[in-house]
Amino acid sequence: MPAEVWKGAPVAEALSENLKTRIAALAGKGVVPCLGMIRIGERPGDLSYERSATKRCDSLGIAIEKHVLPAGVTEDELICLIKRMNADSAIHGILFFRPLPEGMDVRKVCDVIAPEKDVDGITSRSMAAVYAGEEHGFFPCTAQAVIEMLRYYDFPIRGKRAVVVGRSLVTGRPAALLLLREHATVTVCHTRTADLKAVTREADILVTATGHINTVTAAHMRPGQIVIDIGINYDEVRQKLCGDVDHEAAEQIVRAISAVPGGIGAVTSTILASHVVEAAENLTET
Hints:
Rossmann fold
């Protein structure tokens, strides 16, 4: 039987329902939630996420202030822009796309963001909260989207074996930590994992976050698995966006796989919107 393809749209719509009421309440106080978005260059994955986030925010009534910077922007110029956004009371959340250009001190730049506006959980303070299992601050949006997608499609996480392929601070490690918080038994794999295929075949939940086409092939999967493909890559041969997983092979093997495109991205953008609303609520109360 072909695999079920998990779409992100119904998950996003379910998550959006209570946001409309909260946004209306803020409007009654004269507050419009606003996301400050910074994109450097024209990477296809960044453009895809930007479109998804813009569409979701527009549909909910969240404002976006976009800044598109050239690939040659300096670290000082980027930091200066972030500081201006920190000081702007009309901006409630700040997001910039990674990876940053080569040569920039990523940790230094991330930590310039005011913690109360760190809606994608990239500052050291936010990451510490994830590692400590604390509830304050914001979790990384894509990692949280993995959990929300599993919940929506009613796949229990507790007690399951989860394997995350990819260990970046952006997606892989946060996803692993959130799965662990939900009581999964988690293995994190990377380029130096011995016999990766054997490890991934053991998973009940397989999450891929490598940013490379066909990292996961038929040989990495087995029947009954749930595969969440976080990857957003551009296939030059087929001239289209694709994930990390060979989806044609997966659909003949696994129980369910998230769509790419049209899967985790829609959920991620909705969680981002919810974080902006929460940030606006918190900043309005202070």
